[in-house]
Design a protein that fits this description.
alpha/beta; six-stranded mixed beta sheet; seven-stranded parallel beta sheet; Rossmann fold; 2 domains
Length: 401
C-alpha cells in the first residue's frame, strides 16, 4: 500500500529529516479537521489554528460523525481535539537533541486498530528522534501487563505509552513507574486512582460515544426507523467500550423509538461471538438487526448470520472500528456501516503528548479524535482516512472499482 504524505511530515521537512512510508490525513467527508498534529508554525502558515469544538454533553447526539466530540474523558474531562496538539520547530529540535527513550505497553496487539496506532506512534517517535526501546503485548492479561511494565522499566525509558488492560489490577505498576519519574501517556483508559497532570500526562481516545451514535444512526436509517434489534456488547468494566455501547443505546432510544432492543448478549472473548450471534438468532429468528461493540466480535456475529442463511436485506449489521475484514464486508454490502476510530491519528497525538511532557509543556488531560461515519458509499475514502494509506486492491475490487 502506498503511503500518503501529510501534515505531520511538514515538521520533518522544516528540520531536514526524511521519514519514508508514513503520512497524514485528509479532511473527512463530514468536514473534520485533519486529526494529525501539525507544527504550530505550519498552522500559522495555513491560517488560523483548528477551532476548539470542545465536547458536547453525551446526551447530545446531533453531531455524531461530524466535528463535535461527544465523549468525555475517564474522569468526566472535556475533550481537546487531537488537531490542537502541536510543537514548534524549536521544540522539535529540542526533543531531537534530548536523547530520549520511549516504550509502548499494549493491552492487546493482535488487531488492525493496534497495528495502525503503533504505526502512528513509531512514525512520530522517529520524527522526534525518540528511541523506541520496547513494545509489549499483554494479550488482555493484567498479570502479563504488570510483568511487561517491570521489563520495560529495566530499559530506563523516559516515557511509556500504554492502555491499561485492567484499570485496577495494573494501577500499582503504573503508579510505581510514575513515582520513578517516567512520564505516562494513556490510550483510552487510565489506571484507578491516578490523576492527570500529577501521575500521568494525558489520555488520548477516539470519540467512542460518538462512534456508538454513528452505529445507531446507520442502524436506524437502514431499518427505516422500525424493527427489533439485538446488541452484542463487551461484558467488562472497560471505559471506551462502555461509552460506545451507551452511545448506541441512547441514540436508538432518542432518535428511533420504534426500534426495540429486544436482547443484549455480553461477551468477554472477542473471537467467540458467533455464539452470541447464534443465541440471538435462535431466540429471535425474525430479528431485524444486530450491533456489536467492535469489528472482531462483529465478524463472529456475521458468520452466524451467514450460516443461518439470512441475507443483508433481512438482518442489518453495524459496529465500531474499521478492521480490514469488516471493511471488505461493508464494501460488499454485508455490513451496513460503522463508526470508525482514527487510531493512526491517536498514535501521533500520544507521541506528541510524550514530547510535551519531556519539554515540561502543559498538556490537556483528555484528547480525542472525532468519530467517523463509514458506509458503502465512502468506504475507500474512509479507509484512507483511518489507515493513512491508499485503499488496497482487494478493497477496491470488493467496492467494484
Amino acid at each position: 500500500m502506498k503511503r500518503k504524505i501529510g501534515s505531520v511530515l511538514l515538521s520533518m521537512a522544516m528540520i531536514g529529516v526524511l521519514l519514508g512510508g508514513c503520512g497524514g490525513p485528509q479532511a473527512s467527508e463530514e468536514g473534520n479537521a485533519p486529526a494529525e498534529a501539525q507544527t504550530e508554525d505550519a498552522q500559522e502558515d495555513a491560517g488560523a489554528p483548528a477551532e476548539d469544538t470542545g465536547a458536547a454533553p453525551p446526551e447530545n447526539t446531533a453531531s455524531a460523525g461530524g466535528t463535535d466530540i461527544l465523549s468525555t474523558g475517564p474522569n468526566g474531562e472535556k475533550a481537546t481535539p487531537a488537531s490542537e496538539i502541536t510543537l514548534t520547530d524549536e521544540e522539535i529540535e529540542q526533543i531531537r537533541n534530548g536523547g530520549y527513550k520511549a516504550a509502548i505497553s499494549l493491552h492487546y496487539g493482535g488487531n488492525d486498530w493496534a497495528t495502525s496506532q503503533l504505526e502512528g506512534l513509531k512514525a512520530t517517535f522517529e520524527m522526534l528522534g525518540i528511541e523506541l526501546v520496547a513494545t509489549t503485548d499483554a494479550d488482555f492479561s493484567a498479570e502479563q501487563q504488570v510483568s511487561d511494565i517491570e521489563t520495560i522499566m529495566a530499559k530506563n525509558p523516559d516515557v511509556i505509552i500504554s492502555i491499561p488492560t485492567d484499570a485496577t489490577a495494573t494501577a500499582d505498576a503504573f503508579q510505581k513507574a510514575a513515582q520513578d519519574g517516567v512520564k505516562l501517556v494513556f490510550m483510552d483508559n487510565v489506571p484507578a486512582g491516578m490523576t492527570a497532570g500529577e501521575d500521568y500526562v494525558s489520555c488520548v481516545s477516539a470519540d467512542n460515544y460518538g462512534n456508538g451514535c454513528v452505529a445507531a444512526d446507520l442502524m436506524g436509517e437502514a431499518l427505516g426507523g422500525k424493527g427489533k434489534i439485538g446488541m452484542v456488547y463487551y461484558d467488562a468494566d472497560f471505559f471506551v467500550t462502555n461509552q460506545r455501547d451507551d452511545g448506541f443505546r441512547k441514540t436508538m432510544a432518542d432518535k428511533f423509538p420504534d426500534i426495540e432492543i429486544v436482547t443484549e448478549q455480553g461477551f468477554t472473548d472477542e473471537n467467540g461471538c458467533a455464539e452470541q450471534g447464534d443465541a440471538i438468532l435462535t431466540q429471535y429468528p425474525m430479528i431485524n438487526g444486530i450491533y456489536a461493540s467492535w469489528d472482531v466480535p462483529m465478524e463472529g456475529v456475521l458468520s452466524s448470520v451467514k450460516a443461518s442463511g439470512l441475507t443483508s436485506e433481512e438482518v442489518k449489521l453495524t459496529t465500531i472500528d474499521l478492521g480490514n475484514n469488516i471493511a471488505k464486508e461493508i464494501a460488499q454490502g454485508s455490513v451496513v456501516g460503522l463508526g470508525a476510530q482514527l487510531p493512526y491519528d491517536q498514535g501521533v497525538a500520544e507521541a506528541m503528548l510524550a514530547a510535551y511532557s519531556l519539554l515540561g509543556k502543559e498538556a490537556p488531560t483528555y484528547v480525542a479524535v472525532s468519530a467517523k461515519r463509514v458506509e458503502q458509499s465512502n468506504i475507500l475514502e474512509a479507509y484512507e482516512d483511518v489507515y493513512h494509506a491508499e485503499a488496497p486492491d482487494w478493497l477496491q475490487k470488493a467496492a467494484g472499482k
